[in-house]
Amino acid sequence: MVGTHRVAEAAPRKDVRPFKMIGLLCAGVPRAARRLEIRDLKGRTSLPLLERANARARHPASHGARQTCDGRSVANEEQRRIWNELNAPRFFAVRAELERSLAPFGHAAIDALAPHPGESALDVVCGFGSTTADLAARVGPSGRVLGIDLCEPFLAAARAEAPRNAKYLCVDAQTHAFDSPFDLCFSRFGVMFFDDPPAAFANLRRALRPGGRFAAVVWAAPRQNAWVELPVRVLAAYLPPSPPPAGPGPFSLADPGAFQQLLTRAGFSRPRVVPLSVPYFAGATVEAAALLLLQLGPAAAVLRDAGDAAKPLRPRIEADLRTALAPFLGPRGVELPAAAFIATAARDASG
Ligand SMILES: C[S@@+](CC[C@H](N)C(=O)[O-])C[C@H]1O[C@@H](n2cnc3c(N)ncnc32)[C@H](O)[C@@H]1O
Questions:
Q1: Rounded to an integer, what is the distance from CA 223 to the centroid of its chain?
Q2: 124, β-bridge pairs
Q3: How far is the CA of 52 from the centre of ligand 1 (A)?
Q4: Rounded distance, CA 175 to CA 234, Å?
């Protein structure tokens, strides 16, 4: 459970002594729910995913879900609360901007999946459903798409615009048992939030028919993403950094080797994780871009954590950020360097 990931629990152990802890900050996720990642002094991660996979292998009976006293499975409760109660209004406020920024990443991952007309697709953690609609167009009227997410407000917006061959379900991707298997399993920036990644990816593999295909796009490290790094750097001149986060978050699969091993251990065949560099469109003007970036991820967390202390500083912060963004203004608007990974894999034809 995310809520049990305390800072003290993630303190360096003796066998990882040279490691220092760097917080990987989580988009819109409050301090208590963010995740700690351990890196060595050269910035290499200590592969927390693998540690978690090993721990899970030692306790295979849990299947990634806590059992309540009446035997119900409960997983990802903290993520459900965060997205429904805290993040939904924040994301609705920047929905149009986010859709424009993220669309090229999703299109690249859908191209890697190569859907065919007539296929069935699962869109894992579909948010507002824009990639569900993209997939629905690619599989055509003879195909079908199911978008799943834990956030009811996002799904309500998605249902209001659903194409005829798309449906939505409010379920946990980590634990839901799907009625019938899919030809395709897809996700755009949605598979980094599970509190038990090995259990979640094993479940996604089970959702595929034998021979089915998987593709997902995830963020690379914040230092490779100027849309994260630049506003945080500007803020650092005015406000204290947010403390190290705990729990899952948008950069939790930023280690391609660990991600590939996670897919292998979940039973996928032919896993591949390849880098993707696409400019991040932040706005038509530096003014618009500055306003957007201060509402996203780590920068937003710094401002929230500062509370009222940030208010008088805000005009100077925005002015500095506009200056920092100016070199990135081109004919299409403000485009910032951004890096992600596309993972592809399959379920073996033999099952
Ligand atoms: C950054 S959003 C990604 C949304 C979408 N894929 C997109 O690209 O716009 C993360 C989403 O993860 C969902 N989520 C987190 N954990 C989940 C889980 N275990 N099962 C289903 N949805 C989950 C949240 O509700 C939220 O909509």
A1: 16
A2: 148
A3: 21
A4: 40
**Residue 163 — left, alpha, or beta (φ > 0 → left; ψ -120 to 50 → alpha)?**
beta
Phi, psi of 212 (to 5 degrees): -70, 160
Question: For residues 204 and 176, is the Cβ–Cβ distance under 8 A?
Answer: no
Instruction: Give Rg (Cα) of the chain.
Output: 20
Q: For residue range 122-152, list pLDDT tens digits in order.
A: 999 999 999 999 999 999 999 999 999 999 9
Distance from residue 312's CA to the centre of ligand 1 (Å): 34
Least confident of 39-53, 156-170, 322-336: 39-53
Spatial CA neighbour of 243 closest among 11, 19, 46, 7? 7
C-alpha span between 107 and 214 (Å, rounded): 14
Write the pLDDT tens digit of every residue in 222-266.
999 999 999 999 999 999 988 766 678 899 999 999 999 999 999
**What would the mean pLDDT of 261-277 be, rounded to a whole number?**
98
Q: What's the confidence (pLDDT) of residue 248?
A: 87
Buried b (16+ CB within 10 A) or exposed e, 97-119: bbeebbbbbbebbbebbebeeeb
CA–CA dist 234, 299 (Å, integer):
9
Q: Which residues line ligand 1 (CB under 6 A)?
A: 76, 79, 83, 102, 125-128, 131, 148-151, 154, 172-174, 188-190, 193-194
What would the mean pLDDT of 305-310 be, rounded to a whole number? 95
3-state helix, strand, coil in the chain (%, to 5): 45, 20, 35
Q: How far apart are the CA of 193 and the centre of ligand 1, in A? A: 7
User: Among 125, 128, 296, which residue has the most ligand 1 atoms within 8 Å of its CB, making it the best to mutate?
Assistant: 125
Three-class DSSP category at 273 = strand
CA-CA distance, 99 to 92, in Å (whole number)? 11
Encoded tokens for 188: 């755009």
Q: Has residue 82 got a pLDDT over 70? A: yes
Class of domain 2-60+74-225+240-281+338-346: alpha beta
Residue 217 — pLDDT band, cuts 50, 70, 90?
Answer: very high
Q: What's the sign of the alpha-carbon dihedral 27, 32, 35, 41? A: positive
Average pLDDT over residues 162-178: 97
